[in-house]
Structure formats: C-alpha cells, structure tokens
Amino acid sequence: MSFDxxxxxxxxxxxxxxxxxxRRMRRTGLVPVTVYGGDAKASTAxxxxxxxxxVLRRHGRNKILTLNLDGASTPVKIADMQLDPVKGRLLxxxxxxxxxxxxxxxxxxxxxxxxxxxxxxxGGILDQPQHSLKIRCLPGDLPAQIEVDxxxxxxxxxxxxxxxxxxxxxxxxxxxxxxxxxxxxxxxKEEEPVVAEEGAEPEVIKKGKSEE
Length: 212
Hints:
mainly beta; RNA Polymerase Alpha Subunit, Chain A, domain 2; four-stranded mixed beta sheet; elongated
C-alpha cells in the first residue's frame, strides 16, 4: 500500500514490559508506546521523547504520522496519550494503525473565526460549549481544524453543527445537527445594592410579651 504523510516517526520494538521497564525507558529519554489496529498484532515499542514532543508542539495530536517500526512504514494516528498530572510530561502513547483508503474517526479542534456582532455591537459574551468535534473521513481529507465563523451571530444566536461550511461528501460530523457549537449570550446584570432611605431608623424586633 502506498501512502503519503508529512511526518515520519521512528520507533524501536521493546521486549520488556511493566511499570519498572517503562520508568527505565523514560529516564533514558524514551516514551513507551503501544501500536495496534489493522491486520497486525499489537506491538510494544518506544519513541524518542524529544522527537514526539516536537511533533506535538508543531502539529498537535490530530495528525497522521508515518511510523517506521521493525523495517516497515505504517500510517498511524495518535489514539491516546497519558501525561504526568503534575509536570505534564508525556508518559505513554497509543498509536493506531490506519488505512489511507478507508474512512477513520478523528477528533478535530474547533477554531473560532471573526468577532460576533452580538459581542462587538451588543456587548454580549461568546460562549463556546464545543471545543472539538468528532468526524469521520479519509486520512487524506483530515482538516487541521474546523472553522466556525461567528461574525454574523447576534445576541442569543446559536451556531449549530448544521451551520458548518464543510464538504460533507468528504467529512462526516459525528454529532447531532442541532448541537450548539457557539452562541452569544447577554452579560449578567449585577444586582444593585439596597440603600436605606435617609433618616430611616432600623426596625427593631421585640421579643417576649408585648406591652398592653
């Protein structure tokens, strides 16, 4: 099978497994990875941390990679990543083999374009409930992001999945057409503090028996 991807990533097969082996690899600047999918069996491998970190910084995780492993080149996508919760360092990664001739599911970030009229002229606030969308397409048709032009949105106007301007023959959005991606909401009004009238005495609540 022939394919054309922009990014190559070299990996080495590893036989040792377990948490101890993974920690030793990380100390030497490697990241353990699991490669699965397709007709081949799942493989455990390792990639150089600085190389995969450079790919993520430049292209993000939503990119097709050419994985060079055990003398073979295979297109893969990043299926999952495990990060250190404190340092944010990449601890482990799952790579899924894909076919360049079959449609595959991807999660693509949403990119807001323009300034909404309801924000610019009406003083509203842009609310974005959806920051990414799941799509299905051929790897060669995978967009870097899905653009949402909010320029015409007034106060209370929603931008839904059905409003997306994409080639639906190539890209299928795996979300309901009525799902709201962005909308302009009115700012909340602050309640004015209650000011006592000048000269008014505070009301005193009497306890006990009232005098007759």
